[in-house]
TrEMBL record:
The lineage of its organism: Eukaryota, Fungi, Fungi incertae sedis, Mucoromycota, Glomeromycotina. Signal peptide: none annotated. Residues 305-317 have a biased composition (Low complexity). Keywords: Coiled coil, Nucleus. Residues 97-118 have a biased composition (Polar residues). This is Ino80 complex subunit iec3.
Length: 363
């Protein structure tokens, strides 16, 4: 009996020993597994940080490339406008040469002396006339007693709703050719971006973006989806691209931002130049304008001799409105608001808020 008791006590001792060892081994395994999981989580966290940083860099790069694209499109637009300005006087000179009567051969006199040594005619020096010296003809726009323009006023296919406020303290709100006032707003018709069968009205506005102006376009048929860009060309390029896409057109999606926003219109440029503090924009080159009026008996205009004075206002302009038909905007990808294709805007039709308008002379 004593022997059985010793065996039973020994069995209880062994079983208790085994019960103590097995949980300890399981604990060690679980602990190692937890440590491995923590190591894996740390690796995954580091990979996520790398991906997040790479994503941020990619977004910044995309934003920078978009801005460069908009700037390049704006430069292309300015270059195109400059080329049109240069070609216009050249075409005029060519037509004058064709219209002049030919000189008889026996009456030709060589007035340029030829040297006996070389036998070559000395070349004439090309006249260097700056583009800014050109006086641009603009329409008369009615003003109140304080000299402020009465708005809204229709100029060509654009309706000027507000001229805004000149931000002269920051150089990014103007350049040598244009001033971009905050609060400037115009309205115009163009092809809808959601309905291929119709056009809609677009309101083009300039807002303060801090570092520079923000060009905003709001479509009347989708007012909750404004298009915002750093340049006028960038904003309108998006509109033209969407409008061409739903019509399955292969036209170029490029657009002239100054044309579509109205800055290429000489009349609108004069109105902006007449705003307070416009003369404080240090990079802007003052432009010269001549206000036109109509004859009493016809629809053609003639120069009044009235030009902007020192404070940007005009003297001697008389309003003689002539009824005109509204212009229909072109439907292709690129257009110019001026009737003759000149970027200066000669040939604008001005409609006052009373519904009367004037025509510019064709000189």
């Amino acid at each position: 009996m004593a022997q059985n008791h010793s065996h039973s006590s020994r069995g209880r001792h062994v079983s208790s020993h085994e019960n103590g060892v097995v949980p300890h081994e399981r604990y060690q395994k679980l602990k190692r597994r937890v440590c491995d999981m923590q190591t894996d989580l740390e690796k995954v966290s580091k990979e996520l940080d790398k991906v997040s940083k790479e994503l941020d860099r990619s977004r910044k790069r995309i934003k920078s490339l978009k801005r460069e694209k908009e700037l390049l499109l704006d430069r292309i637009s300015r270059a195109s406008s400059l080329i049109r300005q240069i070609k216009k006087p050249l075409r005029g000179r060519a037509s004058n040469k064709k219209s002049s009567p030919p000189t008889p051969a026996n009456n030709i006199v060589n007035t340029v002396p030829i040297t006996h040594t070389s036998g070559k005619v000395p070349k004439k020096r090309a006249s260097k006339r700056p583009l800014n010296a050109k006086t641009m003809k603009v329409q008369y726009v009615e003003q109140d007693e304080q000299g402020n323009y009465k708005l809204p006023v229709q100029i060509g296919i654009l309706t000027v709703l507000s001229l805004g406020t000149v931000v002269f303290e920051r150089d990014t709100f103007h350049n040598e050719r244009y001033i971009w006032p905050v609060g400037y707003a115009v309205k115009r018709a163009y092809n809808s971006m959601i309905n291929a069968e119709s056009q809609t009205m677009y309101v083009c506005k300039i807002e303060d973006g801090g570092d520079g102006p923000k060009f905003v376009i709001e479509a009347e048929d989708q007012p909750d989806k404004p298009i915002i860009a750093n340049t006028a060309t960038g904003a309108w390029t998006s509109v033209v691209r969407e409008a061409n896409a739903i019509r399955h057109r292969d036209h170029s999606n490029s657009a002239s931002g100054p044309d579509y926003f109205g800055f290429s219109q000489a009349t609108i440029r004069k109105m902006i130049q007449d705003l307070p503090n416009a003369n404080k924009c240090k990079n802007y080159v003052e432009q010269h304008f001549e206000v036109m009026k109509t004859r009493n008996g016809g629809g053609r205009r003639r120069g009044t001799g009235a030009r902007t004075n020192g404070n940007g206002r005009t003297n001697g302009a008389v309003d003689s409105p002539v009824s005109t038909a509204p212009q229909i905007p072109e439907e292709n990808g690129v257009e110019s608001n001026s009737s003759n294709g000149d970027a200066d805007g000669d040939g604008d039709v001005v409609m006052s808020n009373s519904g009367e308008g004037e025509l510019e002379s064709e000189e």
